[in-house]
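Module 6 notes. Inverse folding takes a fixed backbone as the condition and produces residue identities as the prediction. Think of it as a translation problem where the source language is geometry and the target language is the twenty amino acids. Below is one complete input and output pair. Work through it position by position during the lab.
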């Protein structure tokens, strides 16, 4: 079952009180191999293909953005719901609110790399985002899907 952006907002609002306890979603804590493998894939891909500032679209709780920031990358977490800024603040990662289903321009630091990790399968209408990526002429666009389906 796909979730609407409004439903994701309610899920994140529920997570907010637990932010200081665990910024990595519980589902990833129960599937540590998925988190470990996602980090390894991202680290390898960016070491070979990453250019400039990394914009993680669909950053969610910011655990990948925070991980990359810890490795020294210039990272911006990008997601729909403004409450997600709180998660990015925990990781000390800048946050930009953005609707992937109705993209609009926002200031980018070029060269820029788009990164999506386990995010595209969560949105209903992904074609506008792909058109946005093509129109924006990013240096790289890197997309990774989960090995374990983490959400219904």
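Target side of the pair, the amino acids:
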């Amino acid at each position: 079952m796909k979730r609407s952006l409004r439903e994701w907002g309610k899920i994140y609002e529920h997570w907010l009180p637990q932010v200081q306890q665990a910024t990595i979603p519980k589902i990833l804590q129960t599937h540590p191999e998925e988190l470990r493998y996602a980090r390894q894939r991202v680290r390898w891909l960016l070491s070979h293909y990453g250019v400039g500032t990394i914009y993680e679209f669909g950053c969610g709780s910011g655990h990948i953005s925070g991980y990359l920031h810890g490795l020294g990358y210039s990272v911006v977490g990008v997601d729909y719901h403004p409450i997600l800024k709180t998660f990015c603040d925990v990781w000390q990662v800048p946050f930009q609110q953005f609707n992937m289903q109705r993209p609009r321009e926002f200031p980018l630091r070029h060269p820029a790399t788009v990164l999506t990790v386990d995010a595209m399968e969560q949105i209903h209408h992904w074609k506008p985002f792909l058109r946005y990526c093509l129109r924006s002429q990013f240096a790289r666009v890197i997309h990774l899907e989960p090995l374990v389906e983490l959400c219904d």
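Reference fact for the lab report: The chain has six helices and five strands.
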